[in-house]
């Protein structure tokens, strides 16, 4: 079947990657997954197949291995573009194991760029992060907000990767065009509840911890501090529905393949709204009908008190705006948690 082009999706069995594979396919592209399953599960492939009613090719390789990447590029041929999700992303874990993060997050990008150059693949969407802003002086953050010293090795790997991509774009003869999408806080799951977030072990992130508490896997949620300078004292974040975030990647691929992108572009991908932790808890209780067991605890090291996106640039230049809000995000996360429990039976 004729498609709009073959797109390699590294980390395509992961949380955001799997949702992007769905949107790419439904937009007429041929997604091909690369994943080593160190931070994802094979069940995601079954979920993708169930939604699309077809299997998606998956190469089980480590993106830091040039030879393995080269073999995939050789076998697949005529690759129109790459979306690079594959990376570790737990802020706290990166503080405990920095070398693991530098090797994987920076090493995989360098290996990928080498092989893309060898095969003359010149379109890249890079999964970046609002953590590059550190603790911003002004809110909402725009793409011109100064990148500050990262608050964690994880955030630093994203800054280093953006620097590598910028230096490459500015180097003589480089033909690669990159769109770096700076995510805020992805939440929720596909409306089919066949794919979603699968945290391995105790969740670091707020929303899976909430849904696991509500379903009885966790005893209670700890709210990490209510003594911040915010409306109710708890931290503020920009929670974007993962389906909206996935769609932003299709918009970026469209832009690259249409030749409309500059050599390197950064975009904030968020809702433009900030919500506090306590607002998220209250909204979850409303949409799920579940009373949540939570307590107030001490601040978590490395937490940024408040950050949310100015989305003007993505709106004006990408023509991208989110369509789903916090309630849909939390309701879909809850449906996914319920589906996980029912499937375990
Ligand atoms: C959100 C808020 C916590 C757990 C995420 C990703 C990171 C990056 C940025 C993409 C914070 C509070 C959490 C809990 C809590 N995204 N919280 N109790 O730290 O913003 O980072 O977005 O690159 O990869 O991890 O997200 O969900 O951990 O925390 O009170 O049990 O919830 O203090 O204010 P964070 P998070």
From TrEMBL:
<comment type="subunit">
    <text>Homodimer.</text>
</comment>
<dbReference type="GO" id="GO:0005829">
    <property type="term" value="C:cytosol"/>
</dbReference>
<keyword id="KW-0520">NAD</keyword>
<keyword id="KW-0119">Carbohydrate metabolism</keyword>
<comment type="pathway">
    <text>Carbohydrate metabolism; galactose metabolism.</text>
</comment>
<dbReference type="InterPro" id="IPR036291">
    <property type="entry name" value="NAD(P)-bd_dom_sf"/>
</dbReference>
<dbReference type="InterPro" id="IPR005886">
    <property type="entry name" value="UDP_G4E"/>
</dbReference>
<keyword id="KW-0413">Isomerase</keyword>
<dbReference type="InterPro" id="IPR016040">
    <property type="entry name" value="NAD(P)-bd_dom"/>
</dbReference>
<dbReference type="Pfam" id="PF16363">
    <property type="entry name" value="GDP_Man_Dehyd"/>
</dbReference>
<protein>
    <recommendedName>
        <fullName>UDP-glucose 4-epimerase</fullName>
        <ecNumber>5.1.3.2</ecNumber>
    </recommendedName>
</protein>
<dbReference type="GO" id="GO:0006012">
    <property type="term" value="P:galactose metabolic process"/>
</dbReference>
<dbReference type="GO" id="GO:0003978">
    <property type="term" value="F:UDP-glucose 4-epimerase activity"/>
</dbReference>
<feature type="domain" description="NAD(P)-binding">
    <location>
        <begin position="8"/>
        <end position="331"/>
    </location>
</feature>
<comment type="similarity">
    <text>Belongs to the NAD(P)-dependent epimerase/dehydratase family.</text>
</comment>
């Amino acid at each position: 079947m004729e498609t709009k082009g073959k797109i390699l999706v590294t980390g395509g069995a992961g949380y955001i990657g799997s949702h992007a594979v769905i949107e790419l396919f439904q937009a007429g592209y041929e997604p091909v997954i690369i994943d080593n399953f160190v931070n994802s599960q094979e069940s995601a492939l079954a979920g993708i197949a169930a939604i699309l009613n077809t299997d998606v090719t998956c190469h089980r390789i480590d993106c830091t291995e040039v030879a393995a990447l080269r073999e995939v590029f050789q076998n697949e041929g005529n690759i129109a573009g790459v979306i690079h999700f594959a990376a570790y992303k737990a802020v706290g874990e990166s503080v405990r194991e920095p070398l693991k993060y530098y090797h994987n997050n920076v090493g995989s990008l360098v290996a990928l760029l080498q092989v893309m150059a060898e095969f003359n693949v010149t379109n890249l969407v890079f999964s970046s992060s609002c953590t590059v802003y550190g603790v911003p002086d002004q809110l909402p953050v725009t793409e011109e907000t100064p990148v500050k010293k990262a608050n964690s090795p994880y955030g630093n790997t994203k800054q280093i990767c953006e620097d590598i991509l910028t230096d490459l774009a500015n180097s003589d003869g480089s033909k690669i065009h990159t769109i770096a999408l700076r995510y805020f806080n992805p939440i929720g799951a596909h409306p089919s509840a066949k794919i979603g977030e699968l945290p391995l072990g105790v969740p670091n992130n707020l929303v899976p911890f909430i849904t696991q508490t509500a379903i009885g896997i966790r005893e209670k949620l700890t709210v990490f501090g209510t003594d911040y300078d915010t409306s109710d004292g708890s931290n503020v974040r920009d929670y974007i529905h993962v389906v909206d975030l996935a769609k932003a990647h299709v918009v970026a691929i469209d832009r690259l393949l249409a030749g409309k992108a500059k050599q390197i572009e950064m975009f904030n991908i968020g809702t433009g709204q900030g919500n506090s932790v306590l607002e998220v808890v209250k909204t979850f209780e409303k949409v799920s009908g579940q009373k949540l067991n939570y307590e107030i605890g001490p601040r978590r090291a490395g937490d940024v008190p408040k950050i949310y996106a100015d989305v003007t640039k993505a709106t004006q230049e990408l023509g991208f705006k989110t369509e789903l809000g916090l309630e849909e995000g939390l309701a879909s996360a809850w449906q996914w948690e319920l589906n996980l429990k029912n499937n375990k039976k």
